[in-house]
Design goal:
Layout lengths: L6 E9 L3 E4 H5 L6 H8 L3 E4 L6 H15 L9 E5 L10 H9 L6 E4 L5 H15 L5 E8 L9 H4 L4 E10 L4 E9 L7 E2 L11 H5 L6 E2 L1 H21 L11 E4 L4 H11 L12 H4 L4 H13 L8 E8 L3 E8 L2
Parallel strand pairs: 4-5, 4-6, 11-12
Antiparallel strand pairs: 1-7, 2-3, 6-7, 8-13, 9-10, 12-13
Bound molecules: oxa(dethia)-CoA (UT7).
Oxa(dethia)-CoA (UT7) binds next to helix 2, helix 6 and helix 8.
């Protein structure tokens, strides 16, 4: 097995459910307007998985596309890491379901719970398995069915979220790959975004269902404030390690797609503006897909030719936990 220190992405994939929920659809559900949602968030549409479509089904479709792009089969994979907070079930993990559905060998497969930062966490974990020499090919998938935990009576949150999946195959590469990674958490602020019931602290009961505690709750304004500073700081940390001090010096910034105003403020702090075309945006089409946002964005950036082999990309995310993470990747 290769001892190379360089670990890169050799195949990317994505899956978005067909059904589109427009801002106009939300006008019929809650007291909101297309104008408010567009102006305050940048979102016009988001995708919604079918009732019979679970997170592992979306993960499977994205994984197959990534494997095909890498010219590998499921049998070649040595490790699966799935980033999700909306797995098919509390247990077993969505990664186990994916391993079974793909027909992989009995390899290690596990989920990572880091909310919107999950893809960055999972890529970093897979990178280190490969660096250690115990894994040759790793499959990383970020998949979320946030419509299953969005409260369609709460206008503050329901308009923000959508479903989707993105996948990457990682392997040792001759040069470039993941050049730096910076991860962090602040568990003292875990109440800012959470799902209160359904775990060991508040098991499901008639009461928790009646109180709508199985839906995502968020203090949007406070999350907004912390997100701007933390995402910018994390991205700068990942870049500074490489002697890079402004996003001007990289080819593309791929931020978590939670709110266009957050992205705008983060980009400014990183030294670029949205009008320069250096910041990848797909929030208008998909809304916030948690971990899947950065995964789908990276796949689309490559598929659309926005970046090519040798280009440097900064990815940065922030979410429930609180968690954050940033990566600099030189594309293989
Ligand atoms: O993925 C994890 C990270 N998540 C995020 O980064 C999300 C961060 N937060 C945000 O994106 C924004 O805070 C929101 C989009 C959630 C809210 O935007 P805001 O500009 O911070 O609005 P606000 O919470 O300060 O609320 C302003 C007003 C309130 O009305 P009052 O109390 O001033 O009368 C809200 O009730 O906007 C109202 N409002 C809405 N109005 C129409 C909240 N949601 C809606 C809505 N339609 N959908």
């Amino acid at each position: 097995m290769s001892q190379s220190k360089n670990v890169g992405i050799i195949g990317l994939g994505k899956y978005l459910p067909e059904k589109i929920l427009t801002n106009q659809d939300f006008e019929k559900l809650v007291d909101t307007s297309d104008a408010w949602i567009t102006e305050r968030t940048g979102i016009k549409e988001r995708r919604m998985a079918r009732p019979d479509e679970a997170t592992s089904d979306m993960a499977l479709a994205a994984a197959r596309e990534a494997l095909a792009a890498a010219k590998l089969t499921a049998q070649d994979i040595d490790l699966i890491v799935v980033a999700t907070v909306t797995g098919d079930t509390a247990f077993p993990s969505t990664a186990c379901r994916l391993q079974g559905a793909l027909g992989c060998r009995p390899i290690p497969a596990f989920d990572v719970s880091a909310a919107c930062s999950g893809y960055i966490y999972a890529l970093t974990i897979a990178q280190n398995f490969i660096k250690a020499g115990t894994v040759r090919y790793a499959l990383v998938v970020a998949a979320e069915k946030l419509t299953s935990v969005a409260d369609y009576t709460d206008r503050n949150t329901c308009v923000l979220f959508g479903d989707g999946a993105g996948a990457a195959v990682l392997a040792a590469v001759d040069s470039g790959g993941i050049l730096s990674s910076y991860l962090g958490t602040d568990g003292t602020q875990s109440e800012l975004i959470n799902m209160p019931a359904g775990g060991s602290r508040r098991p499901a009961s008639h009461e928790t269902v009646d109180q709508r505690l199985h839906y995502l709750k968020m203090n949007g304004a406070e999350v907004f404030r912390v997100a701007v500073k933390t995402m910018a700081d994390a991205a700068m940390e990942a870049m500074n390690t490489l002697g890079v001090h402004s996003a001007e010096e990289v080819d593309l910034v791929i931020p978590h797609q939670a709110n266009i105003r957050i992205i705008n403020a983060v980009a400014k702090r990183m030294g670029v503006s949205l009008t320069e075309g250096k910041v990848f945006l797909n929030i208008e089409k998909y809304g916030n897909m948690s971990a899947a946002s950065t995964a789908v964005a990276l796949t689309e950036a490559v598929q659309q030719g926005r970046v090519k082999k040798g280009d440097r990309v900064v990815m940065v995310a922030f979410g429930s936990g609180l968690t954050w993470g940033a990566l600099v990747i030189e594309l293989s």
